[in-house]
Amino acid sequence: MKSWRKWSALDSTGVMAVPKDAKGVYVIRRTLGITDQDPSDLIYIGSSGKGAQGLGKRLRRLLNGKHSAAKRIKRFIRDGLQFSWFECQTPDGVEKALLLAFKVSTGKLPACNKQF
After folding, report:
1. pLDDT, tens digit (0-9, with 9 covering 90-100), for 31-84
2. Are 59 and 83 in contact (CB under 8 A)?
3. Which of 16, 38, 94, 104 is the most buried (most CB within 10 A)?
4. Model's pTM, two decimal places?
5. Where do the domains of the chain lie?
């Protein structure tokens, strides 16, 4: 497994730097709007999944509004969104493990994840 990439702005410039067909996992965080009632900066955990869609394609779909979580994530756009990612061979399993770890440590899923 490779290491996490540096945080980038969740915009077309940042997303274009991600290889279209890379298998892996990504996370989205907000840099503003963190409160005592909602203290987590991490709002979404996702992956390229089991299919043929790579990380770059998945993130482009998110920006174009064609990703299943796009509407939920856009609610946070004013909060300075950033993303990070890493390549791995079993992205679906790693995504599920990250979601489980988040739920165990906080008692809930990230704000824009519906399930795992």
Report:
1. 998 888 778 899 999 999 876 789 999 999 999 999 999 999 999 988 899 999
2. yes
3. 94
4. 0.93
5. 8-106
The pLDDT value recorded for residue 69 is 94
What tokens does 37 get? Answer: 């009632």
Tokens of 55: 């990380």
What tokens does 23 get?
């298998």
In this structure, what token pair is assigned to residue 104?
A: 């165990």
Read off the amino acid at residue 39: P
Q: Give the angle subtended at the CA of 86 by the CAs of 18 and 19, to the nearest 5°.
A: 20
How distant, in Å, are the alpha carbons of 10, 36, 61, 68 from that of 83?
6, 22, 14, 17
Tokens of 22: 């890379």
The CATH homologous superfamily to which domain 8-106 belongs is GIY-YIG endonuclease (3.40.1440.10)
Instruction: Give tens-digit pLDDT for 1-21.
Output: 579 999 999 999 999 999 999
